[in-house]
Write a structure and sequence with these properties.
Blueprint (H helix, E strand, L loop, with lengths): L1 H5 L3 E8 L3 E6 L3 H6 L3 H13 L2 H15 L4 E3 L9 H8 L4 E18 L2 E17 L4 E13 L6 H28 L2
Parallel strand pairs: 1-3, 1-4, 2-4
Antiparallel strand pairs: 4-5, 5-6
Helix pairs in contact: 3-6
């Protein structure tokens, strides 16, 4: 990883962020998964999606971080299948990009269960990042940063303000964790 910061290779950044969603943490059986009425959370997730600008927060973090390390970057639009290395190579050929960081972000509401009982509704964010060197097809870095923040009070109160707050705090915490892991990997 030390060579990553000192070389002059340009990094392409691909951000794959999914819309706010329901995630589950359960300590029971498969019945828990089937017992969730997803419909009761759809309105809240739509409102939260409009309140939380996750993509710009993630873009700002990586842009500022790599700029502080004098690493040239370019944000890339997804028009290829990232699971196929040859498509990444073809798509980036001639753009001067030698490395690519693929960032997958999931966030939203984390429901916790014990048997059939719903015991908590928390804010959730998980960032999976992977840096690939396109010159030799190697993985330079791979990491997961995850954060869960408790929703205080009634999650529905005041147009889902408490739920929005817990999700925003989970995103901030996951970004902070990602920043610390990048710093420590040098």
């Amino acid at each position: 990883m030390n060579d990553f910061y000192s070389d002059n290779k340009k990094v392409g950044i691909i951000i794959l962020n999914e819309p706010a969603n329901i995630h589950r943490e359960h300590k029971g059986g498969l019945v828990d998964i089937g017992s969730t009425n997803r419909e009761r959370f759809i309105e809240a997730l739509k409102i939260i999606k409009n309140r939380v600008d996750l993509k710009s927060q993630i873009e700002n973090f990586y842009s500022e971080y790599f700029n502080s390390k004098n690493k040239k970057t370019e944000f890339l639009k997804m028009n290829f299948d990232i699971s196929k290395n040859e498509q990444i190579h073809k798509s980036l050929k001639g753009k001067g990009i030698n490395q690519v960081i693929i960032v997958k972000v999931e966030y939203g509401l984390l429901l916790s269960y014990y048997n059939l009982l719903e015991i908590a509704k928390n804010g959730y964010c998980q960032i999976n990042s992977e840096i690939l060197d396109l010159d030799n097809n190697s993985v330079i870095y791979k990491n997961t940063s995850k954060s869960i923040k408790k929703t205080k009070g009634n999650w529905k109160k005041s147009e889902y303000q408490e739920l929005t707050k817990s999700i925003s705090l989970a995103i901030e915490s996951a970004i902070k964790s990602e920043k610390n892991k990048f710093r420590l990997s040098r």
